């Protein structure tokens, strides 16, 4: 069994459709969506498991139960959100973990200047206040990224990840 953890987006729905069409994989691939809001884009399919919860702790319980019952050989995390850190952290060493990186996976967390000063003047800026929850999640994120076996990303951004997270993952 291959588990995919995805967010609710039009891209995720198209990806699920693609995998199901190209790999005839209704029994081999299962797609897990854990969301705190109503699902807008992903359509229910036989191999799609949608769970709605408003709490990261409830999400953790759901993910632990899924990992215990499904017993995956591989885990693919499409966008390493706070909730999807846990499948990677909880996976035993026999489960290969793949991180399919989206831009926000990197640039929301590393000290990388994306915009010049003029562009920044047009963007509402939020001060990054570090509370205890954010510090814990940052620590968990670092541990999860170090545990990932493979990262699906271009070479430039792969090097940024290696620089900031000291991961041994392969590309």
Summarize the structure.
The chain contains seven helices and six strands.
Q: Would you kindly provide a written description of the structure presented here, covering whatever features stand out?
A:
- The protein has 171 residues and is α/β, with parallel strands linked by helices.
- Helix content is 43%, strand content 18%.
- It is built from seven helices and six strands, in the order βαββαβαβαααβα.
- Strands 3-2-1-4-5-6 form a six-stranded parallel β-sheet, with helices on both faces.
- Helix 3 links the parallel strand 4 and strand 5 (96-100).
For the structure shown, list the relevant keywords.
18% strand, 171 residues, single chain, six-stranded parallel beta sheet, alpha/beta
Radius of gyration: 17 Å
Instruction: Please give the number of β-strands.
Output: 6
Q: How many helices in DSSP terms?
A: 7
Through-space gap between termini: 22 Å
Order of helices and strands: EHEEHEHEHHHEH
- Taking pLDDT < 50 over at least 5 consecutive residues as the criterion, the unreliable ranges are none
Which sequence of strands runs across the widest sheet?
Answer: 3-2-1-4-5-6
Strand count, sense and barrel status of the largest sheet are:
6 strands, parallel
Which term fits the overall shape?
globular
Bin the helical content: 40-55%
Which percent range describes the beta-strand content?
15-25%
On the 0 to 100 scale, the average pLDDT is 86
């Amino acid at each position: 069994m291959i588990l995919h953890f995805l967010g609710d987006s039009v891209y995720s729905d198209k990806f699920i459709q693609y995998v199901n069409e190209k790999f005839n994989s209704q029994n081999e691939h299962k797609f897990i969506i854990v969301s705190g809001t109503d699902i807008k884009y992903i359509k229910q399919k036989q191999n799609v498991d949608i769970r709605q919860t408003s709490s990261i702790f409830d999400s953790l319980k759901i993910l632990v139960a899924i990992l215990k019952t499904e017993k995956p050989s591989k885990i693919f995390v499409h966008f390493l959100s706070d909730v999807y850190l846990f499948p990677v952290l909880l996976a035993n060493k026999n489960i290969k973990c793949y991180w399919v990186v989206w831009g926000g996976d990197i640039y929301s967390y590393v000290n990388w200047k994306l915009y010049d000063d003029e562009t920044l003047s047009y963007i509402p800026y939020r001060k990054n206040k570090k509370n205890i929850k954010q510090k814990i999640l940052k620590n968990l994120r670092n541990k999860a990224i170090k545990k990932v076996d493979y990262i699906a990303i271009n070479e430039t951004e792969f090097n940024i990840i290696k620089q900031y997270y000291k991961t041994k993952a392969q590309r």
